[in-house]
Specification:
The chain is mainly beta. It has two domains: 5-106, Immunoglobulin-like (Sandwich), CATH 2.60.40.3880; 111-206, Conserved domain protein (Immunoglobulin-like, Sandwich). Helix content is 0%, strand content 60%. It is built from no helices and 17 strands. A hairpin with a 2-residue loop joins strand 12 (155-159) and strand 13 (162-164). It is globular, with a radius of gyration of 21 Å.
Length: 208
Amino acid sequence: MDDRVSFRAHFERYPVTVKGAFVLRAADGDPHQVVFRSGECVELSGAEGRSLGLEDVVVDVAPNLDLFVPFEFPSTELASGWYRLECRALVDGTPSGDFLGERFVVGWPRAAVRRGRVDVGRPIDTGAAKATVLDVECGSDSIRLTYESPEPIALRLDADGRELTIIDDEHDAEAGRGSVVGYPALRDDRELVIRPLGSTDELRIPLP
């Protein structure tokens, strides 16, 4: 985020609230003044998140000393989805960039999502590298697609015409395999459509 000040986020989830703090420390050995312009709990699919109420909070950050800027908000107001904590700040009057915290999930009701695994083993034209979709696994809070390719590929996933937000992707060049993780398929969804970005090809997979 910024070479002058390090930002971290720690939080705990309780039955009705999320409590935590942004942890700041001067990273370059000099003291700095930090002004929070915003702090938010952001829903990754673009749905409405919530403010952490940190606008215009001013703190002085010293080297070799952690400074905690606390926050608390009701978790009962969060719909099912994947979230992360973000903040924007000024350091000594200049923008520091955006801090993006680790993701966390507010789970879906068990009866609302599909679960199970489909072995696919079918090639897909990515427009560049050769790729084979190996399998699709539907879980309680995500859907994971595993593929074989010498290079990482970008995919769009749609369940019955609804785009599934991608929350993670990774690729192991040595193993020649990668995976894409998105929002879960819902109980009423019947078909997953896999589309490589930059290609007109697609695979249609019946969901388990």
